[in-house]
Design brief:
It is a single chain. The chain has 2 domains: about 250 residues, no CATH class; about 80 residues, no CATH class. It is built from 15 helices and no strands. It is elongated, with a radius of gyration of 26 Å. The protein is about 70% helix and about 0% strand.
Length: about 350
Amino acid sequence: MAASDTPSSGAARHLLPEGEKKRPRLPIIDIARGVAIVAMVIYHLCWDLSYYGFMPVDVGYDPGWVTFARSILFAFMFLVGVGLVLGHGHGMRWRGFWRRWLFLAGGAGLITLGTWLTFPESFVYFGVLHAIALFSILALPWLFTPLWLTGLVAVAVIGLHFLYRDPLFNAVPLSWIGLWETPPLTNDLVPVFPWLGVVLLGVIAARLVRGSAVEARLAAIQWRNRPALLLGWMGRWSLVIYLVHQPLLLAVIMPLSMATGMQNAGRELEFLNSCQASCEATGTSAALCAIYCQCGLEGVERDDLWEPIFSGRVSAAEQAQLDANNRQCSVLIYPELEDAPADGE
């Protein structure tokens, strides 16, 4: 819908029959979606390599990688809005909409199940596919409202995320809304605020372009080289690629990590670095801290305490063992502690 369209004409298109002839597909949109899915595969590949110890950087927290991930997500959400307008801006094709929506919802369920089995402490309960499924419904009314109103809502949804915080939304059942003070522990979370606003920005952009000379110029872009054809194909099958790429990556990286011992080496280095920093923060010399932390690492490996340390779920017996190990290691660097009574004695 062009910017000059009136609300009444938008409502008329909303009521057009299911069988209305589809407008031509814009190959450039498929290519853009293909570029986004390639970028996401690259990000997930590096995240997996980081998690299993093949990369020294923590991809999930490194500022550069976080910016890269947010840029990819912005592109995906923006293109969701564009796709809704291209597919339904001249009248809802409900059969096609619900068929695609069921595929999205089913894929989101598989992502939740798969990550719960693989990463139970940080499984994905409202990730990219969950968000696209919900936002595809929430954005529908804004395909036909006046552009100024759609823009106002988009700005409000994005702005509220940065201007308002409430600890009520820290809880997992409400965290998908996005107004938390502290984000929950999960490998992927795409909340309503601000990302629905980005979808609406895509809606606005596509509505401004539809029926204009810009749309005609975009439709005239028909790149036939192999990279463009491949990216276009990937864009058309982006949902399928999103579903299968991570299991395929993990099927290769996880066994390779176990075979090479990289995952163990990575977690050992992380443990030593964290221990060294905490120890030196107490004023202990770096040399003594190195002895203390190496002792602690040997205790963790001897008593098989990796799971409680990294999951945060420590039983009373495990905590007692950790305390005993810490005391034993402290005696190595401060022998005078050997005859001191233990806590609670």
